[in-house]
Design brief:
Chain lengths: 268, 268
C-alpha cells in the first residue's frame, strides 16, 4: 500500500494523502499513545501499520551524504532540533513534522550528513558522528557517491565494496549501540541532469545491495527510488531533482513523507 | 474544528492529524480534482471545507517580517520554488507541502518577507515585492514589529496606524491586482523570551485589528495565536518560539499546518 500510495495520479494521490496521515497518526499512536497504555486507540489508529520506531525521548540521527547534509550549518551540529543544523532537505522536513506533532515526546534530532561522502567515509567518522550521540534511531542514506565517483574517475570502489562496508558499519553500530533501531534508505537517482545511461545497470546493483543490507539486519527500508519512479509518471524528473541526484524542495518533501511513512511501519 | 484540532492533547492531536490531512486533501481536491471536474470525489474529500484558494498555475507570495523571511537568500528571491529563497520558516514548510503534493499544478511560490519590517515598510516596497510578481494569492503576516519597536523605543506607531496602513495596503493590492486572493495571518507571541507583561493588553489590540482587516476585506484569516495558545497547554512556550517571537522548527511547522488548513477552507 505504501508504494501504490506514492503514485502521483489524482486518485492514488488521494490515497497517498490518507496513507501519509495514517503513517503519521500511527507514529503518534505507536509511540505516545501506546506508551500511555491506550492500546485500543493505538490499534484503531495504526491498523496493520503497527508500532513506530520513534518513542518518547528518542534520539534520532540522520546520516548520509549531500542529500542528507543539504547545506546544514556544521557549527551548530551539536544543537539538537536546530533548524540551521538540520539543513534544508528531507531530514529538516521530517524533523519538522516529528517535532511539531510530538511536542511531549521530547525528541532529540541530529543531522550529521556530509556532502560527497561514501559509506567508508561514514565509517571513518562513525565514533564522533554516530556512536558518541547515543542515538536510539539511526537513519542512513548512502550510496549515490559510491557509484558517481567511480563514473567520474575519482573512486575505484565497487558494489561489492559498498555492501561489505555497509554491513560492517551496521554490525559495528548494533554492537556499540545495543537496542539501536536502524533505518536504511534506498539510494535513488532521477533520469535527468547529471544522470545518464552510464549509470545503468550498475546503479540498480547499489540499490539492490542496500535492500539486501536492510533485510539482513532487519531494519526499516525507505524505498526512495520506488517513490520517485512513481512520482515521475506524471511530473518530470527535474521537478523532483534538477541534476538527477539532489532533490528539489518538492522532492525533499516527498522523501520526508516516505521516510515518516516507512518509520511508522513495521520493520521488514 | 480547526481550533480544537490544533490542541496538543493526545486525543485531540489524533483529530488534528486527521484534520490536517483533510485540509491537505481538500487543497488537492478543491484545486486539482475540481478543476478536473471530479465533483463527487471533491465533495467526498473536502466535506464542508470547500474549495482551496490555490489552483493550477497559481503564483503564491508570502509577505511579512522576520518570521516569514526566516533567513531566506535574497540573491535568489526571483527564483520561484527555490529552497534557499524560501528561508527556513513556515513559508518554506508550507511551500514544501504544496509543491510535493501538487506537482501537476505548476505552482510558483515566492517569499519576500524582510526582517524587522512593519506594515508601512511593506507598503514602501509593495510595487517591487508584490505587484510586480503578479501573484494570484498573497499571504501577509505583519504586526509584531509594529508593537515591539514601540516597546523598545524605536517606533512611535499605534494600533490605529497599523490598522489604517494595513487597510490601505489591501485596498491598493485589490485595486492593482484584480482577482487576487488574500490571506491575512494573525500576529502572535508566546509568553517567554523577549515577551513580557509590557506587551499586554496592547498586543491583543493588534491581533484584533488584523482580524478586523481580514473580515473587512473578506480574506482568509490564519489564527496563529489561537493555534499557539492551544499548543502551550501541553508543551512550554519556548518549545514553539524560544524568544517568544521567532518560531522554532516545531513552531514553524505548526504554522505551516495551520496555514494550509486555513487556505484550504472557505474564505470568511
Amino acid at each position: 500500500m505504501g508504494e501504490s500510495g506514492l503514485t502521483n495520479s489524482p486518485a492514488t494521490r488521494r490515497e497517498f494523502l490518507g496513507h501519509a496521515a495514517t503513517a503519521t497518526a500511527a507514529l503518534t499512536a505507536g509511540t505516545l499513545l501506546s506508551s500511555a497504555g491506550c492500546a485500543r486507540s493505538t490499534a484503531r489508529l495504526t491498523g496493520r501499520q503497527g508500532g513506530g520506531l520513534i518513542g518518547p525521548g528518542s534520539v534520532v540521527l540522520f546520516q548520509g551524504d549531500s542529500i542528507t547534509d543539504a547545506g546544514r550549518d556544521r557549527r551548530r551540529e551539536d544543537t539538537a532540533n536546530d533548524t540551521r543544523a538540520l539543513g534544508t532537505g528531507y531530514a529538516l522536513l521530517a524533523a519538522a513534522a516529528l517535532l511539531a506533532n510530538h511536542g511531549e515526546a521530547k525528541l532529540t534530532i541530529y543531522n550529521r550528513g556530509i556532502s560527497g561522502h561514501k559509506v567508508f567515509q561514514l565509517a571513518e567518522r562513525w565514533d564522533k558522528d554516530c556512536i558518541a550521540l547515543k542515538p536510539d534511531v539511526v537513519s542512513i542514506l548512502i550510496g549515490v557517491n559510491d557509484i558517481w565517483h567511480t563514473l567520474d574517475g575519482h573512486y575505484d570502489g565497487t558494489v561489492e565494496v559498498y555492501e561489505r562496508d555497509y554491513r560492517a558499519l551496521l554490525e559495528r553500530t548494533k554492537r556499540e549501540l545495543p537496542g539501536v533501531r536502524l533505518v536504511v534508505c534506498e539510494p535513488f537517482v532521477l533520469r535527468c541532469g547529471a544522470v545518464n545511461d552510464k549509470w545503468f545497470p550498475e546503479f540498480d546493483g547499489y540499490r539492490a545491495a542496500a535492500r539486501r543490507v536492510a533485510t539482513a539486519f532487519g531494519t526499516v527500508f525507505v524505498p526512495f527510488q520506488t517513490m520517485f519512479d512513481e512520482a515521475v509518471r506524471t511530473t518530470p524528473p527535474a521537478y523532483w531533482a534538477g541534476d538527477g541526484v539532489h532533490p528539489t524542495l518538492a522532492g525533499a518533501q516527498r522523501m520526508a513523507q516516505a521516510w515518516l511513512q516507512a518509520v511508522a511501519s513495521p520493520t521488514t
